[in-house]
Amino acid sequence: MATELEDELGDILGKARDGKGWTQADLAKSAGMSVGDIARIENYEWVPEEKVVFKIANALDLHGPSLLAIAEEKWVPEKEIPDPGPFDITCLNVFMGLYPVKCYLLVCRETRATAVIDTGANPEAIIKKARDLGVKPEKILLTHTHPDHAGGLGKLDSAFGCPTWVDKIEPRPSGSHDLRIIEEGDSIILGKLNIKTLSTRGHTPGGVSYKINESVFSGDAIFAGSMGRANASWSGLFNSVAGNLLTLPDNTRLYPGHGPATTVGEEKQHNPFFYGKVFQ
User: Fewest beta carbons less than 10 Å away: which of 101, 127, 226, 262?
Assistant: First the structure.
């Protein structure tokens, strides 16, 4: 099975080490391996055999079978079933250089009111898709303001003339003529739709996810089989994912900023960071 996941074994090891504040030497010592072998794994040069993967998982407090399935490219999430809510979601694969980024158009079926969720760094693709669909976005919702998610804001602002929402403590993006501040629990109305904000801080200081019916646009908080890189706070990111996303019903769809869509149920059963953790 060719991998479709955002993170491979080496990425997961690096993020798990970050959570412990470990160097490669620390992991090597704990797992009884050489630093060179850890480096080879993290550089995508070597996928070790099962017993070695389990030793590493044990050292990093990861779920061994889930980690092995990802290492051997034997798991990807099931293709999502469309949300039964009265809206349509269009996923756009845009790029920052060669790096793929997911952006989304959310359209209320009854009113055709439309929101852009994250801009990517290729706003022309979003503008073209909106025109193809016959819609004009009236809101831009940012999960965070890294360049690959907010770099197209200026051109979208010029094209659509609409306000942009961002978390109250997230670094302010450039390019918006009408920047609006949100915080956890706020609601944003789009046509006949009610979008709820969920705090998912940790990847960035003010990361936020947007929930509509049985779907969540989660930015870089969680990926299928992994979690985002904790640039602001590892424990903050882990706890916000575990407490604010994985407590939702199992059929809740998670639309990330990179890699395939997944569900809460899939991640509780297959994500090596979160398998078996307590969700309340």
Answer: 127
